[in-house]
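Hi F.,

I've been meaning to write this up properly since the lab meeting, where we talked about keeping a consistent format for the predictions we share between groups. The idea is simple: the sequence comes first, exactly as it goes in, then the structure tokens exactly as they come out, then a line or two of notes. No screenshots and no reformatting. I'm using this chain as the first example so we have something concrete to point to.
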Amino acid sequence: MRWDGQAIANDDGALPGLELSGLRRAGLLRTVRAPEFAGMAFHEVVAKSALSQVPPMSQMPFRWTINPYRGCSHACTYCVDPSTLVLMADGRQKPIREVRVGDNIVGTEFDGKYRRYVETTVEAWWGTVKRAYRVTLEDGTEIVSSGDHRFLTERGWKHVAPPAKGEAQRPYLTTNNRLQGFGTGMPTQAYESPAATIEYRRGYLTGMIRGDGMLFAKTYDRASGGRLTVTMFRLALVDDEALVRSQSYLELAGVTTTRRPFARATVNRQAMDGIFTSTRGNYARINEIITWPESPSRDWSIGFLAGIFDAEGSCDGQVLRISNSDERMLTTTMQALDILGIAHVRERAASNGVATIRVSGGLPSRRRFFMLTNPAITRKLSIVGAAVKTWGSLRVVSVEDLGSEADMVDITTGTGDFIANGVISHNCFARPTHEYLDLDAGADFDSQVVVKVNVDQVLRAELAKPSWARESVALGTNTDPYQRAEGRYKLMPGIISALADSGTPFSILTKGTLLRRDLPLLTAAAERVDVGIGVSLAFADEELQQAIEPGTPTPRARLDLIRAVRDAGLPCGVMVAPVLPWLTDSLDHLRRLLDSVVEAGATGVTVIPLHLRPGTREWYLGWLEREHPRLVAGYGRVYGRGAYAHKGYRDWLWARVQPLLDERGFGSSGHRRRGGGTSPGGGTSTDGVAASDRHDDGDYPSGALPGLSARPGPMPLAAAGTEQVLF
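Output, unedited:
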């Protein structure tokens, strides 16, 4: 988006001129630079109109659009090192470079007077390059981030570094601050989840079997003479994860066991499965595996702690305990904790002889135990619901400018924060999840967003005019109405209500998961007017998808969005767009992608080849030359110097796709129009370029526009065919 010459008079009140006078003439209320949108400027304007008429030459299947925003709130300032550990909702940790959109992680929220750990969802992910700073805490925790990143201290949110000379003052970290969270107790580069070495596996099985298993051997006199030795091993557990791990480790050690139900569920007890073996060889081998070592190695000790915790340990979110009545088990547990430097105390034995070892030091010690030992049972690891505290060990020791730029990663979450290396970290609230390769060369689009704050009121007035014929209105054809700024301004509920109240059918094209917020409102609107929902989905393979469109929702996240829309009783058409020659146009990829769309419940599908417009073209071909140089010549043949694929390729792709759509009941699910195409993100272009007579790049799938009927259900899938490569 460019600002030049975009006065309100010639762009329906959405794009004022860049000069302050132009903004004022356009109805500028104020310019907002909120800390959660670092680097962004939101120009809140009073719009003179809400409805935009589509130029007749575009030949779109709709005449009217609404764009509550112009520009996209996707500036990236908050960033951390790719190795930074993120606390997942299941209590385990994962480097941020491996986190994906749709993952469930831990954030924080206020519950009355207290901030607590809660479950939240990753809404966006992206990488960038920023100048690197290292924050070191008293307990040894290290975090590498950008200077603009913010962490939660006992005195509120603070940036890592002070502002640059000439910039406005802002709070930043000093050695007087303590961060909130629990830390890692070590530099990130020193942390590694324990490897399942032979010694770790032996230690785990020793703790598990001695803690919760049964080994039985008895010799009987035979009535006919002689003696019979009966051997038996049994391990029965409620938690499947520990049972699977134990069976796997035994298998690796040469012991084959059989799994079967052990106890049925009752009112007071859960069902239990067990693993069993009764051969003498297996019995002898198990006894050999769990023999106490004369000098336990570090790996064995770590494995033992994981095993005894899975067998006899508990953690209610506040206290981690391991109980046993065997003195050797208790002594070995304490020795292993000493090896890892984890503080603990031995509590007085109960009347039944069972003694308890309690990990002391609060949440930092408990999290260190889990990080270093990696128990199998996930339910014991979660901290969701626990109160956030500030520990003295998290005092800032130093903030060091590393003097160079480095790769950085950031995520957007539902709570606005996440747990990074054990401390509470702010996230960036904005990143485009609605664009695919359609990169804008102007920085204005990235940092200057115009917000029509009164769009719903103006829209109601326009829809109330006697001249309004209640024609279909499309949203999301230019900028995504559910970009991150919508989370702040909440314009869409008013727009949806105004359209429904006036009896106007409408459609929404988006990738933004924020649409889920308005599903109840959309469902109510659909009872009064026709509503269309469209989602674009181009990949079946997450690895390729993340390589080409980092920071956008994964295929799984988009499929979940489709399911949520369908579960709400709304139609949802899917644009398989764009199809990339030689990368995503194989029969195997198209079949898998279409099968997943069928399973998600989409009401229609259209398949659209890649467009290479200026800006997009340079970026994509540069990526292709680096990652797939053998394909560059082929792309030259398919695209030449134009933006659209050669007609021969489009005909070939359609011949390949049409049978697949027919097999899945999508053969007649699209709406055809002459001319035009789609943007790589599934948005609609208005350039009027003619499409093939036999298939149209601008088809809209059933359910994406009002009045396009939804299919009743998928047809049976046909057998696989033979792939041919023509280009």
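Notes:
Residues 85-192+385-426 form a domain with the Endonuclease - Pi-scei; Chain A, domain 1 fold (CATH 2.170.16.10).
The first strand starts at residue 28 and ends at 32.

If this format works for you, I'll send the rest the same way.

G.
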